[in-house]
Amino acid sequence: VLLSWRFFLGMEKVIACAQKKPDALCRLICFPWAGGGTTELAQWSKLFSNSIEVLCVRFPGRETRLNEPFMKDMTSMVNEVTSVLLKELQEKPFAFFGHSFGSYLSFAVALHLKEKYGLEPVHLFVSSAHAPSSEAVTHLKDISIANASDEELLAYIQMLGGTPELLPNEDLRKEMLLTFREDSRVFRTFCFEKAEMDIPLSCDITCFSGSDDKPHDLRAWQEVTSGDTSFYELPGGHFYLLEPSNGIFLTKHITRCIEKAGL
Length: 263
What we know:
single chain; alpha/beta; Rossmann fold; 7-stranded mixed beta sheet; 8 helices; 7 strands; 14% strand; globular; disordered N terminus; lipid biosynthesis; Thioesterase; S-acyl fatty acid synthase thioesterase, medium chain; fatty acid metabolism; AB_hydrolase_fold
């Protein structure tokens, strides 16, 4: 009993689920962006039918995990997500959706699950993220966010289309900047060496991007799977997915892809 209670606490701590759907055929695990929380993606639950249950990963250092230390590297994050979700992922089919930083984390978790447990998502949805083997990822890692001043960081987030002006409260702004800074530090530890492995995944991959965002190197996503890869551009910038009309398109499209997987 103690073990299951401890597991439950871990699950509640790391995973946000706005709407439990015990009869769902598939779970969609969502991975937020750097500096992000679970609020927006967990709310997608309302847009899906009862056949898809939405779970959103909550990173340490924010929301109900505010007092926990931030993770130091991608491997630690992958291990935590895997250990907490493994039972769920073994009992019914699942798909992953990640936005920006969350795309890289979802891909890293998918690789780990495949290598260690022989488990794989039925579909991987990535959003606003370069292909893992792209030179652009190396360039992104070189942007020295860790040493940037708060003003430089605010300007960078605003350029991405984030809205720090909605945070008039100085404490909230500082908290958001710290969270973004720490997640960016984790991103710098992300590593994928394509030369070291054959095609690692076999699931279909869909890449979404915003038409006004900086262009992403998406094509090479097709090199990491033997499944189909498709690409969709939606109106908006880096955070195009927060537009209600885009949210509706995404959830309908994700539903279609999951149904096509023939669960």
